[in-house]
Amino acid sequence: MSLVAKRLAKAAALRAEQKQQTEQQAVQAKVMGVDMAKGADHSTSFTVTSAERPPNMMQFDLLKVAMEADLGQLKKFSDIERKAEYKSDALTKNDYLAYLNTYRKSGANHPNIVLAWVFIWLIDLKRWSQALEWLPLLIAQQQPLPKRFKRKH
User: Model-level pTM greater than 0.70?
Assistant: First the structure.
């Protein structure tokens, strides 16, 4: 093999390796839950490899962690009015409804705990028209409710 052919082969191998590394870059996400009274005090971080998950599922992963952080913060409140205020702020801050609109328009169908919790929060906040807007999707996709809402009949 000539020196030129060896160098061309080495360059092609380097390009293939760089392409593979680029495709497997990890996305680091840090989601902060904020205690309205005391400030930031709850964080969760995780890594998702982009080659493993499509972009819409990565957004779901991020919002699922955000929801878990919000649920953790809600446990700190005993006053229902404070909980309602926190839920309302979290819906806006994390843009859960925009994600759910994208989810609905994409035609995706997977167990979506974010959808279930947002529906429950909308009921809690007495936002009936918004809650009823999501009910057909929950039923059509047979979305499971969080485990604490499951009852044996």
Answer: no
